[in-house]
Design brief:
Elements: H1 2-19, E1 27-31, E2 37-41, E3 46-53, E4 57-68, E5 71-79, E6 92-96, E7 102-105, E8 111-114
Antiparallel strand pairs: 1-2, 1-8, 2-3, 3-4, 4-5, 5-6, 6-7, 7-8
Amino acid sequence: MKRSILVAAALVAILILSGCGKSHISGAYRDEHDRTVEYFFTHDGLFSGAINGPATGFHGFRGTYTIQGDEITMTYTDLDNQKPVGDMAKPETGSVSSDRNTIRTDTTRRTLVKE
């Protein structure tokens, strides 16, 4: 009887802990200061987006992301249908707010806010 209770308690603890700290985000995010920059994140670790401004024109991008705790790493795999070069070929790191509504990037210094 005690063993059954311990096993049940352990299973409940595992289920509760596995729900904490989402490892993915999803939805549309825009740059807080430059509304022409938009990212779309999917729950399966992919992102895409565009910069579409009067001064810059349209530029599309795609990539993958991972989240460990509150740290995000984004790797661009496609920029305007070409392989990224230079700084864009390096992974972009940043942080994700605990409510998953804000992403702050380190390299490009963007603050992305969920729409």
